[in-house]
Amino acid sequence: MKKVVKLARAITLTTLNTHETYLLRPALNGRFGGLQLRGWNRFLRCHHTQRVHNVSPLLAGFLYRIATHFDGHRVLIVAGYRAPRIAREKGNPKSPHPKGLACDFRVEGIATTTLRDYVRTTFHKVGVGYYPNSDFVHLDVGRKVDAFWIDYSGPGERADYSADPKGDLQSEKLPLKLPTTQPAPADSEADLRDDQRVEPKGAQPPKSASSPGSETPKTTPEPDSTN
After folding, report:
1. 181: helix, coil or strand?
2. Where do runs of H (alpha helix) occur along the chain?
3. Could you give the 3-state DSSP secondary structure of residue 155?
4. What is the pLDDT of residue 215?
């Protein structure tokens, strides 16, 4: 009698810009190897240039854990790899996106605040960015220490970082700001087309400070997390 092998659950990822779909399923040992990640790099290619680059398999493992935690809900990808030229044009050449270490995403049917809290408390040595006015979370891997930031900028605006992100979380008074007419080439939301962007309702002036920094926790964690 043949032994029945039960495969791990597959989760679905969809890119918001190319509308391509990718099924992510680990091997029987729970890991992601070359076979499991066939087409992974192309799926998360730079949608501006179509350039393909190696994307960390750690991101695959984290996204899989996130999706399975939320009952297999679909993961919606805002941005994965970004070509260095595009990162420079967006104003953030030090972003982890050109290194294939970052992903901006949502989980379908899950509040972004819930997603944010799960990612922050579950994974370590990562960078987590919360974008309340664009409704997505940034996740990057390969850091020595954790980093967290909140960017209140809306679609088409320059980065507007909270001066006290942890304090904002404690009070959960996260002010939403209506988009302005000033473009923000470094803003993550630029990756979204007009019909994909989330417009804030009941906006209040943000109690934050625009102070972009570096990729390290002591400076600005990740001014780029987008395009």
Report:
1. coil
2. 40-43, 57-69, 84-89, 112-122, 165-171
3. coil
4. 45
| 3-class secondary-structure state, position 131 | strand
Domain ranges of the chain: 11-196
Q: Measuring CA to CA, which residue among 127, 149, 152, 121 is closest to residue 139?
A: 127
Nearest to 155 by CA among 180, 175, 130, 138: 180
The whole-angstrom separation of Cα 204 and Cα 193 is 24
In 3D space, the residue among 62, 59, 58, 78 whose CA is nearest the CA of residue 70 turns out to be: 62
DSSP code for 65: H
Residue 119: closest CA among 106, 132, 109, 108: 106
Residue type at 159?
A
CA within 13 Å, CB half, 119: 34
* Cβ–Cβ under 8 Å, residues 147 and 222: yes
For residue range 42-52, list pLDDT tens digits in order: 999 999 999 99
**Bridge pairing between strands 147-150 and 126-131:** parallel
pLDDT of residue 208: 46
Q: Are 176 and 132 in contact (CB under 8 A)?
A: yes
Find out whether 153 and 133 touch, Cβ atoms under 8 Å.
Answer: yes
H or E element: which one contains 34?
none
Looking at residue 170, what DSSP letter applies?
Answer: H
